[in-house]
Write a structure and sequence with these properties.
By secondary structure, the protein is α+β, with helices and mostly antiparallel strands. Helices cover about 50% and strands about 20% of the residues.
């Protein structure tokens, strides 16, 4: 998008970031939202890439409120277990690309996956059982 004009004022908009606050179940989070902004009217225009920022921040807030693992926790546990993203998806569940999506914040981790990862983080020997189960399929 090249230098859009404000739909309210007709003035050129400026590319930048502005604080944005989101709310979920009585909790809030503030982050820097990228976009095109009109200084005169306060209007803003956001690209699809810009919207990914707010989507990820909303997922982070939901994870915190719902007691789910954050992307960095998923990555830490998977790495501690010595699994690739692909292997983790096959052994623990979710499919081949699930852990890439969990770790990038693209997809919110479920309660079941959170529980499985917390248990494996506390007792990595559980991987042996999962490997035996997978080998038997």
């Amino acid at each position: 998008m090249d230098n859009p004009t404000c739909p309210e004022t007709g003035r050129p908009m400026v590319r930048g970031e502005q604080p944005m606050t989101i709310n979920y179940k009585g909790c809030s989070a503030t982050f820097d939202m990228p976009g095109w902004f009109c200084e005169a009217s306060g209007e803003s225009i956001h690209t699809g890439e810009d919207m990914k920022v707010s989507d990820r921040e909303l997922k982070r807030l939901k994870a915190k409120v719902e007691g789910l693992l954050l992307p960095e926790d998923v990555r830490r546990i998977r790495a501690r277990l010595g699994l690739t993203q692909k292997d983790a998806g096959q052994l623990i569940g979710g499919g081949l690309n699930a852990f890439q999506k969990y770790e990038s914040g693209e997809v919110l981790v479920s309660h079941a996956m959170t529980s499985a990862l917390i248990l494996l983080d506390r007792d990595p020997a559980g991987l042996t059982l999962l490997r035996q189960r997978t080998a038997g399929d």
